[in-house]
């Protein structure tokens, strides 16, 4: 299924067994719950999916595991590479494995300038027919994709959308003013998701959706229906959980949320470690309070 870049796209966590091996049944179980809850696409192998610990073959295994679901939602694979050659190779293999689209980060490790970053995106896009969502997150990845850079990319037909994670909400209006609807805009920061939608974002690439998909879908729908008061009420309930998405341990925190909602496991790959002690008590308290006051949908 071709991505529309509207609605809610979970950046799903990768499930592992206690020994560190991929846990495909647990991965698929979570994705099935996402689909039942009304999400519009699945993004795998992102930072929340512990991309840095996955081999290229493991990412393809995840794509292949979701082939039976492609008639229901598009399957998007993340590409995060430090080399143009490796990024092109990953794009080609993702297409061969049955991915419906790509999320593409700027080059990692080396802080490429604007011309280098634009060239990187163009070369990767030229290597595949898959639609591409660019990931604009200068806070974590140190390279901003500016409006001027997007002007150089607007003729690249398969670069269709951007995950907007600059933390500058004004950027949504800048993009709409500059390009109209040429690029779909996906809000990429959980703690700014309602604001992003109200300012014109077309959808969300979300984190806490991994544990709370129904609530995330309802929040999106309320915002798009103009039911702002209802959306704000749900957002205020959600916010203590959404704060976990902007913490360096978002993977561990969100996986613990998945355990509490019965749709995930807590195992992570080193150097990450499962949280313990006072930190764990604090996070579990936040989760338990949220569950005690969870709205019914």
Overall structural class, as computed from helix and strand content, comes to alpha/beta
Strand order across the biggest sheet? 1-8-7-6-5-4-3-2
Q: How many beta-strand segments?
A: 8
CATH architecture: Alpha-Beta Barrel
The major β-sheet equals: 8 strands, parallel
Please, what is the average pLDDT?
A: 97
Structural domains: how many: 1
InterPro entries: Aldolase_TIM, DapA-like
Organism: Carboxylicivirga linearis
Family: Belongs to the DapA family.
Protein name: Dihydrodipicolinate synthase family protein
Structural commentary:
By secondary structure, the chain is α/β, with parallel strands linked by helices. The protein has a single domain, classed as TIM Barrel (Alpha-Beta Barrel), CATH 3.20.20.70. The chain is built from twelve helices and eight strands. It has helices spanning 24-36, 56-65, 84-97, 114-126, 138-141, 147-153, 170-179, 193-198, 213-224, 228-242, 250-260, 277-292, and strands at residues 7-10, 42-44, 75-79, 101-104, 132-136, 159-164, 184-187, 203-206. It has an eight-stranded parallel β-sheet with strand order 1-8-7-6-5-4-3-2. Helix 3 runs parallel beside helix 4 (114-126) and helix 4 (114-126) runs parallel beside helix 6 (147-153). The longest helix has 16 residues, at 277-292. The model has no long low-confidence stretch (mean pLDDT 97).
């Amino acid at each position: 299924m071709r991505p529309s870049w509207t609605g809610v796209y979970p950046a799903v966590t990768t499930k592992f067994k206690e020994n560190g091996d991929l846990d495909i049944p647990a991965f698929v179980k979570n994705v099935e719950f996402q689909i039942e809850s009304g999400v519009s696409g699945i993004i795998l192998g992102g930072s929340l999916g512990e991309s840095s610990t996955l081999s290229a073959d493991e990412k393809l295994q995840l794509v292949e595991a979701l082939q039976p679901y492609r008639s229901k939602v598009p399957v998007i694979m993340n590409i995060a590479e430090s080399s143009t050659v490796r990024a092109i190779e990953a794009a080609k293999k993702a297409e061969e494995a049955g991915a419906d689209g790509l999320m593409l980060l700027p080059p990692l490790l080396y802080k490429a300038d604007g011309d280098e970053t634009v060239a990187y995106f163009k070369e990767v896009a030229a290597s595949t027919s898959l639609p591409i969502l660019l990931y604009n997150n200068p806070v974590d990845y140190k390279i901003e994709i500016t409006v001027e850079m997007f002007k150089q990319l607007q003729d690249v037909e398969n670069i269709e959308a951007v995950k907007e994670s600059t933390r500058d909400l004004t950027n949504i209006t800048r993009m709409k003013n500059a390009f109209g609807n040429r690029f779909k805009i996906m809000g990429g920061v959980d703690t700014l998701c309602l604001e992003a939608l109200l300012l014109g974002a077309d959808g969300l690439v979300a984190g806490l959706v991994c544990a709370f998909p129904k609530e995330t879908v309802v929040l999106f729908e309320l915002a798009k229906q103009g039911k702002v008061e209802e959306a704000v009420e749900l957002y205020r309930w959600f916010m203590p959980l959404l704060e976990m998405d902007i913490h360096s341990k978002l993977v561990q925190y969100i996986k613990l949320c998945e355990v509490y909602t019965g749709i995930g496991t807590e195992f992570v790959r080193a150097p990450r470690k499962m949280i313990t002690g006072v930190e764990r008590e604090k996070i579990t308290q936040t989760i338990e309070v949220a569950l005690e006051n969870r709205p019914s949908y």
